[in-house]
């Protein structure tokens, strides 16, 4: 079967949201709540192994702040996280987080070619809405047939739940799709649903293992700004477009 759909992760894949958005928002939320916690970039790099902002806060308290007193860790983490989400959405609307190279172009080319688009992320749905509408316009939310976010499945990535859910919603088989990810937890989730996965690394994930990726790139590239291939089969392509995706699909799926 020909390639039919592209399924995108959000954080780290569509934009450098972790460094420019989530980390900044966590620290601003801590300060606003009078907590003297400051997550450095180095610490956040480690904390990213735990997906989901609320789980990340609980992991931090348990592993780094064992003496921190709280009545109920679940509700504490939920309230810090709610404020962090508000701040993150505000940062996105201030235009602080651009899309990574090639993302907007590829969405447009894929739509023109009749490919179906979807999102599979562990982040909060408000964050996805804010990023898409701020960078592409509010109407771009309709470009995605399904937006699967962290609230629709019980287990976050690296579990495969979100990709299984998206495939089921679209009534598609994994072999007819390509997933786009940036992290080890992300590719583990996609692989659980048998999805062939294209990786674009970022500063937090360039040392991750991506043994099963169909190709590993520094970014999607643009006609005037070619990608760097970190691992993959040689190709004439210098940026990711629909023809290159079809080539990858034919080779791997
Ligand atoms: C993203 C996440 C999220 C974000 C923060 O992982 O793990 O937790 O870091 O967003 P992926 P929330 O890119 O693999 O989906 O605070 O809304 O969870
Ligand atoms: Mg990601």
Based on the model shown, name its key terms.
Rossmann fold, DNA polymerase, domain 1, 2 domains, binds magnesium ion, single chain, 253 residues, alpha/beta, binds xylulose-1,5-bisphosphate, globular, seven-stranded mixed beta sheet, 7 strands
Structural write-up:
With 253 residues, the protein is an alpha/beta fold. It has 2 domains: 5-16 and 99-251, 3-Layer(aba) Sandwich (Rossmann fold), CATH 3.40.50.1000; 18-93, Putative phosphatase, domain 2 (DNA polymerase, domain 1), CATH 1.10.150. The protein is built from 9 helices and 7 strands, in the order E-H-H-H-H-H-E-H-E-H-E-H-E-E-E-H. A 7-stranded mixed β-sheet has the order 3-2-1-4-5-6-7, sandwiched between helices. The longest helix is centred in the first third of the chain and has 21 residues, at 73-93. The mean pLDDT is 97. Bound molecules: xylulose-1,5-bisphosphate and magnesium ion. Magnesium ion (MG) is lined by residues 9, 11-13, 182-183, 186.
Helix content: 40-55%
Q: How can the largest sheet be summarized?
A: 7 strands, mixed
Question: What is the N-to-C succession of helices and strands?
Answer: EHHHHHEHEHEHEEEH
The average pLDDT value, as a whole number, equals: 97
Oligomeric description of these chains: single chain
Could you tell me the number of beta strands?
A: 7
Q: Report strand order across the widest sheet.
A: 3-2-1-4-5-6-7
Gyration radius (Cα, Å) is: 18 Å
- Report the structural category: alpha/beta
Number of domains: 2
What's the number of helices? 9
Small-molecule binders here are: xylulose-1,5-bisphosphate, magnesium ion
The proportion of strand residues reads 5-15%
């Amino acid at each position: 079967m020909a390639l039919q759909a592209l399924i995108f992760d959000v954080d780290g894949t569509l934009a450098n949201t972790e460094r420019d958005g989530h980390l900044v928002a966590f620290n601003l939320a801590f300060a606003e709540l009078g907590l003297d916690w400051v997550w450095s970039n180095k610490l956040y790099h480690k904390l990213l192994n735990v997906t989901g902002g609320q789980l990340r806060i609980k992991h931090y308290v348990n592993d780094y702040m064992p003496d921190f007193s709280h009545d109920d860790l679940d509700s504490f983490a939920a309230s810090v996280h709610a404020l962090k989400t508000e701040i993150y959405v505000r940062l996105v609307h201030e235009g602080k987080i651009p899309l990574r190279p090639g993302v907007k172009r590829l969405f447009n080319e894929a739509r023109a070619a009749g490919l179906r688009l979807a999102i599979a992320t562990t982040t909060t749905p408000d964050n996805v809405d804010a990023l898409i509408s701020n960078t592409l316009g509010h109407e771009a939310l309709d470009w995605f047939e399904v937006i699967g976010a962290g609230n629709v499945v019980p287990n976050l990535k690296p579990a495969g739940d979100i990709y299984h859910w998206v495939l089921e919603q679209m009534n598609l088989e994994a072999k007819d799709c390509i997933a786009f990810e940036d992290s080890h937890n992300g590719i583990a989730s996609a692989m659980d649903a048998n999805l062939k996965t294209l990786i674009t690394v970022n500063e937090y994930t360039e040392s991750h293992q991506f043994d099963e990726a169909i190709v590993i790139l520094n970014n999607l590239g643009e006609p005037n700004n070619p990608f760097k291939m970190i691992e993959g089969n040689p190709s004439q392509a210098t940026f990711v477009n629909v023809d290159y995706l079809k080539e990858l699909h034919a080779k791997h799926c």
